[in-house]
Design goal:
single chain; about 50% helix; 2 domains; Rossmann fold; 16 helices; N-(1-d-carboxylethyl)-l-norvaline Dehydrogenase, domain 2; alpha/beta; 8-stranded mixed beta sheet
């Protein structure tokens, strides 16, 4: 499947990120079908060429056809891009499956972990498909605010999949002079990095909302990366992935960028806003909220220490005072910076570099 052989690309999910990807692919000359849950979003795009709900002030090309019908959206499509919220992925796959008559490339652009099953998004998708489809899946992750992508700000992301030939072909589909796509094989690390950084971004927002300073934020980001690596290694990810775009890159962006929903949630929590108010005040989803719950369950399952993620969970789900969380973190038992698991990761990287 060469890029030139693609005729139709179906994007499922017309939130900010799904719309941004539809915009990106449409400007490359592809015919785009963009499925939206809300009829108002379809009407807005078709009549005004703008997604006024989720991505205002971005003019969408005429080659993007917005629709509510999954049947129409998936009819004889050549590439499927999934960009729905993580908590809706399983239900969406149940609806999509009857329309998938034969294997086709599927790119998962959703960042998150399913709360009940603790599955990564690729695992959720795979559970609804025959085993022979596994090599057709790829995941897209990395530091990429939708609004900046649509305004052609330089952006770099990771596309990971089991079939390197498919990844290389899809790399060319998404690639533009302003949207650089790197290829990778580590789907677990790419997805964990993209999911866990949202939890750390909430913590960073709490730090800034409490006005604790740049020193504290830098420490939070650094130790947050350590927690991500711990869990990633326990789940079979490649440590080096977390030093790349879907790990450190996305962590820095969402923990410092004002456009980050998760970072803004952290700021509001620090200022005393309750979760009910936060949930009702916006249409967009801050994935770090539910991911903090899933992260704690995974940490317990794999016997991993994740104090920052645990602190976010306690603030979000147990109503603990954010200041008390910071105090708990700062008063933990003194220890060496590099724990044994992290030390072995560094040793492996150094050995790899010498070979």
């Amino acid at each position: 499947m060469a890029p030139s052989s693609l005729r139709v690309i179906s994007v499922i999910g017309a939130g900010a990120w799904g719309t941004a990807l539809a915009h990106l692919l449409a400007t490359k000359g592809f015919n785009i079908r963009l499925w939206a849950y809300e009829p108002e979003v379809v009407t807005s795009i078709q009549r005004q060429r703008e997604n006024t709900w989720y991505l205002p002030d971005v003019v969408l090309p005429n080659s993007i056809q917005a629709m509510n019908s999954l049947s129409d959206c998936l009819h004889e499509t050549d590439l499927l891009v999934l960009a729905v919220p993580s908590h809706t992925m399983a239900n969406m796959m149940t609806q999509i499956r009857p329309f998938l008559k034969k294997p086709l490339p599927i790119t998962i652009a959703t960042k998150g972990i399913e709360e009940g099953t603790l599955q990564l998004m690729s695992q959720v998708v795979e559970s609804h498909l025959p085993d022979t489809w596994r090599t057709w899946l790829t995941v897209l992750s990395g530091p990429s605010f939708a609004a900046e992508v649509c305004r052609w700000k330089p952006t770099t992301v990771l596309l990971a999949g089991r079939d390197s030939n498919l990844v290389n072909r899809l790399q060319q589909v998404f690639l533009t002079p302003q949207f650089r796509v790197y290829a990778g094989r580590d789907m677990i690390g790419a997805q964990l990095g993209g999911a866990l950084k949202n939890v750390m971004a909430i913590a960073a927002g709490i730090v800034d909302g409490l006005e604790l300073g740049a020193n504290a934020r830098a420490a939070l980001i650094t130790r947050g990366l350590t927690e991500m690596i711990r869990l990633g290694r326990a789940m079979g990810a490649d440590t080096s992935t977390f030093y790349g775009l879907s790990g450190l890159g996305d962590l820095v962006l969402t923990s410092t960028g004002k456009l980050s929903r998760n970072y803004q949630v952290g700021i509001q929590l620090a200022k005393g806003t309750d979760m009910a108010t936060l949930r009702s005040s916006t249409r967009t989803v801050a994935e770090g909220i539910t991911t903090s719950h899933a992260a704690m369950a995974l940490a317990k399952q794999h016997h991993i220490d994740m104090p920052i993620a645990e602190g976010v969970f306690q603030v979000v789900f147990e109503g603990k005072n954010p200041r008390h969380i910071v105090s708990d973190l700062m008063s933990r038992t003194a220890k060496g910076e590099v724990d044994s698991l992290f030390s072995s990761s560094l040793a492996a990287l150094e050995s790899k570099g010498r070979s």
